[in-house]
Amino acid sequence: MTYTVAVSGASGYAGGEILRLLAAHPDIEIRTVTAHSNAGQPLIQHQPHLRSLAHLTLQDTTPEVLAGHDIVFLALPHGQSGQYTDALGAVPLVIDAGADHRLTSKDSWDSFYGGEFHEPWAYGVPELPVNGTKQRENLVGATRIAAPGCNASTVSLSLAPGVASGVIDPGDIVSVLAVGPSGAGKSLKTNLLGSEILGTANPYAVGGTHRHIPEIRQALAAASGPSTGSGTQIERSIRISFTPVLVPMSRGILATSTAPIVEGVTDAQVREAWESAYAGETFVQLLPEGQFPRTADVLGANTALIGLGIDRAANRVTVVTAVDNLVKGTAGAAIQSMNIALGLPEDRALSVNGVAP
Fold it and tell me: DSSP code of 42?
């Protein structure tokens, strides 16, 4: 069966990456691409690397244009997709690459985003440990999927095995991330100009203000397993200091996360938690002991590579994870989740191989 697809926000980075991956998907027909200010222009003018899609013209982003497809991808800025999702009830599968349907807590949404709160959808991180199983099971047959925030899914995948197995204390997590500017989108911003980012590293959203923090806490709370307490109470017990740093690479995330090791837990038990969590996973891979990933190793790939260190002097575990923020962090996760929802091979149109040099 061939599924017809519309992609909104097709002139942006996330929309362009969704299109690049879908163009190689044998079960997908990309029928419609939409934009706002760029509507009426050829797609190739804004995505010149997508040569196979040169015949497409950007249309206006309206519910009427998006309706009538089997699948709709929304690659819009945070707070903008909700206005369309309510009007797409007849579309069999809708996948939102924005934040509008990620959070289960209205309080968290109000604190970090603001604006209208929309119902949470199935979270698009299949490998994430959740209540003794994997999030993958919640995606089977899903009709509404919220693709993850790239920083959030990277940190969550880094630490969820330790939280799920009880070998680390989630009350004192520290994560520092080196991130590329493509994660901020394609809109012109002075602080993202080449002259502003080349030759320097710039921290941003310092002091617990980054919008992905509640998403991380939500994911780690789910990994901790069923509880008699409310979800909000569990999330509050997870304390994380989260600091992203903008570095001069166009795409990629290198997340270094640490957390205390629970008293009495051995080194072998720590490593076993991650080994067992990701054993057999195609796209999340734990590297051999003593090895740590580089962002260059995941460029263009749907892989998250994880290196695990045990610092007994500080009695903390150190997890270093590398992803391509536009693939495994966004578009790849969305398409992987789509494959699961439709009952297709999970790795269809997705690669574990990066691009080098």
Answer: B
Contact 219, 234 (CB under 8 A): no
> Could you tell me the sign of the dihedral formed by the alpha carbons of 17, 332, 71, 125, in that order?
negative
Active site residues: 150
**Mean pLDDT, the chain, as a whole number?**
95
Burial (CB count within 10 angstroms: exposed 0-12, middle 13-18, buried 19+), residue 259? buried
349, 353, 352: which is closest to 30 by C-alpha?
A: 349
- Beta strands 173-179 and 133-134: pairing type? unpaired
- Closest to 71 measured CA to CA, from 117, 171, 4, 170: 4
13-22 and 332-342 helices cross at what angle (nearest 10)? 50
Q: How far apart are CA 158 and CA 320, in angstroms?
A: 7
Instruction: Tell whether pTM > 0.70.
Output: yes
* Tens digit of each residue's pLDDT (9 = 90 or more) over 197-244: 899 999 999 999 999 999 999 999 999 976 534 455 567 789 999 999
Q: How far is CA 301 from the centre of its chain?
A: 13
Phi, psi of 35 (to 5 degrees): -155, 180
